[in-house]
Every structure is written in structure tokens, then in C-alpha cells.
Amino acid sequence: MTETTFENARVGDEVECLLYGKGVVKEIENKLTYNSPLVVMFGFVSHSYTKDGCPSGHPFGRTLYWPGVKIIAPERPKKKVVKTVERWMNVYPHGVEHLHPDEKSALRCKTDACIATVKLTGEYEIEE
User: Fold this and answer.
1) Residues 91 and 115: beta-carbon distance below 8 Å
2) How would you list the strands of the sheet with 14-17, edge to edge?
3) Spatial contact of 36 and 48, defined as CB atoms under 8 Å apart
4) Lower Cβ count inside 10 Å, N or C end of the chain?
5) pLDDT tens-place string over residues 57-110
6) Which of 22, 24, 31 is nearest to 9 (CA)?
7) Residues 59, 23: one domain?
8) What's the whole-model pTM score?
9) Domain range for residue 101?
10) Are 20 and 60 contained in the same domain?
């Protein structure tokens, strides 16, 4: 069973803090009235924590963990975006020629046999 609090912590135990990195338990105060029973050394600086791993006197939630904590960020949700494509083409009695990016390009390639120049519009949805 994995321990998630520091009820059974001992002086000398290694811990990890999200704010300060790796540290060592320096002191444990066992009085019931004492709100911050753990003193942890991070290099030359010490900080006090509750048995739940919350720093004393700070509005943060839990920041102290046993070594090996892995924080996995959730994937960014993909949003769906609707894209619109517009192309132009010339229609001939024998079929159509290739698509043009704009009307000006289609009209430039148009010949006398052209029946019509039409605009094609399509939409597709992609995830970004």
C-alpha cells in the first residue's frame, strides 16, 4: 500500500516538493496542537509542512510528496475548426478544365467554347 500522507515520516526521510525540489525531513513535532509538524531541509533552507504535505502559512494546496512523484499534464483539448475552400472552373461541352484559385485566373484561361465559369465552394472540418 502506498502512503500518501506523512503520518509515518521519520527524520532523514527523503521527500520532494513541487516548489523547492528534493529535501530531507529534519524535524518532526508530534504535539497534536502543532499545525506544522514537519520541518524539511532543501539545501540550506528549511520549510514547515502539515502531515498532509501542505506548506504552513501559505495558501497553496499540497506541495510535498514522497520521492518519485510523476506529474502528467493532461493533453490540450483539440478544437474543431471549419475551413472553407473556394475554387473556380470553366465548363466546356467536352467537360471541365482544371480548378483555378480565383475568378480572375479562370477568366484568363477561358476560351470561346466555354459554357460557363462557376464558383465551387466546399467546407471541411479539422482538429487543431
Assistant:
1) yes
2) 45-49, 38-42, 21-28, 14-17, 64-65
3) yes
4) N
5) 777 788 888 888 677 888 888 899 999 999 999 999 888 777 899 999 888 888
6) 24
7) yes
8) 0.51
9) 80-127
10) yes
Alpha carbons 23 and 26: distance in angstroms, whole number: 9
* Average pLDDT for 43-69: 85
Phi/psi zone of residue 19: left (φ > 0), alpha (ψ -120 to 50 degrees), beta? Answer: alpha
- Please report, for residues 23, 47, 48, 60, 61, the alpha-carbon distance to residue 41 in angstroms, rounded to integers and kept in the order given: 5, 7, 9, 19, 19
Residue 47, Cβ density class (10 Å: 0-12 exposed, 13-18 middle, ≥19 buried):
buried
Residues 60 and 84 occupy one common structural domain: no
Structural domain contains residue 72: no
* Total number of domains constituting the chain: 2
